[in-house]
From TrEMBL:
It holds the Pfam family GMC_oxred_N. Belongs to the GMC oxidoreductase family. It comes from Siminovitchia fortis. Residues 161-180 are annotated as: Disordered. InterPro entries: FAD/NAD-bd_sf, GMC_OxRdtase_N, GMC_OxRtase_C. The keyword Disulfide bond does not apply. Residues 143-329 form the Glucose-methanol-choline oxidoreductase N-terminal domain. Keywords: FAD, Flavoprotein, Oxidoreductase. One of its GO terms (molecular function) is oxidoreductase activity, acting on CH-OH group of donors. Coiled coil: none annotated. This is GMC family oxidoreductase. Residues 427-551 form the Glucose-methanol-choline oxidoreductase C-terminal domain.
Amino acid sequence: MAKTLDKVDVVTVGVGWTGGIVAAECAKEGLKVVGLERGERRGTQDYQRIHDEYRYAIRYDLMQDLSKETITFRNTRKEKALPMRQMGSFLLGEGLGGSGTHWNGWTFRFLPYDFEIRSMTEKKYGKDKIPDGFLLQDWGITYDEMEPYFDKFEKTAGISGETNPLGGKRSNDYPTPPMKKTPILQKFEKAAKDRGYHPYMMPSANLSETYENPDGQTIYACQYCGFCERFGCEYGAKSSPEITVIPAAEKTGNYEVRTNANVVEILKKGDKVTGVRYIDTATRQEYIQPADIVVLTSYVLNNAKLLMVSDIGEQYDPDTGRGTLGRNYCYQMNAGATGFFDDQMNTFMGAGALGMYMDDFNGDNFDHSKEDFLHGAGIWITQSGSRPIASNPVPPDVPLWGEEFKKASIHYYTRTLFVGGQGASLPFKENYLSLDPTYKDAYGLPLLQMTYNFTDQDRALHKFATERSAEIMKDMGAKEVVPENVLTDYDIVPYQTTHNTGGTTMGADPATSVVNNYLQHWDADNLFVVGAGNFAHNSGYNPTGTVGALAYRCAEGIIKYSKKGGSLV
């Protein structure tokens, strides 16, 4: 029998960046907020022995337990989807802070083109430029409308960076200066500028200097230890929810975090939601948490799944094209080239977002008239700290085992660089999320099923971005340049990015979106859904900066709704 708890103003499902931002903003306005997190509590004090590559980077100690909750995957509807039993293409986080604990810290703003991609594409190239079967749509909001929220997130996180010369207009500079421009980055900068490109220091949540944010939280200066992605930060120098928005919410006295709280259902009565049902993962006790407002702030995949199992919204049907829930699932593709050098470099030092980026081939910053793809890729290099277990690059003519491999691996450990191309992903009618008809999680709920494959658009963009990356790598002085292999079918392994997007898209039309531009659900005005699932497509960037901005937009909407009720648009 479920135990019913006292009603609160707001309940959030998941306590990472989005849950923390919503909680902090609502609690500061006097709303009583409960945050439900299915993982454990953790913070800087827990990361004193974090430099264990095997435990955290190989065995994924901070990640989700896939024996309890996972997804099933297939490339096409003709295939049987099977469960992902170990982490592969992307990493599913769990615990207080979510993926904001173990991220690298790349913190971009999507381009103005991204928010109005269909309108701008049709205006410049005509409707025929959009291939059949692609579900491109505008987001229902413009970059200029989003700019204040980007600015607010960057100030909360203390982002270190410099202005993107090809990006949207900014109201302010980044709150802290860019990170160190190392000799490795200078090689990339010179090669790119010699070709007439516009490289800039990557916007980084690994801070260049100690910073106090507007909420009074201190984020310390990065030590360039090289342990960012898949690790927590023992210095408190990587901006994360546990050292910023969560303590800001808690100090109001209006916020409570409950860990080991796995939400299994959103409760609904008529056209309103009434709260959530959750299970304490330690005691197995079941609870009902009533709330005036419910906010889904967990990861992309879980937000979509909770709506599906709670029967809220219409599931997307690829046969008819009807329905929006699960529609527009997008990923990304990684292009690039590896360079082998004679000179030794300090590749073992660095930080997750210590790097340079260029957007000359991102968005619509170049003419697509003669290209057989839309959008583009950011071209980048990072010095993120090569760790010895996962970093064993050797030229293609070297065996992958034995004495010769060991010798070459040691030699090239500090003599190898990679220039990457992070490519956009556009929504295709056959790529979507749904519930699996066979497999269930540890709580008896259907697993989320992912149907996804790369398209000809992806393959053409991958080839283009790989060629551009290889050109820059050659100009950097590599004695041997090895381009990435040709893109074929998507596979659930190996790791690529955790940049899953779509499934709960935002927009101006309920026929093509799940939520409006305040992230308010079209079918229940006291239900909000915020995260990268709101993206109508994926860009040539990491998603977190845009997710953070959307969370501030969502929080503003929730506060407005708490005072007036009704639809916000």
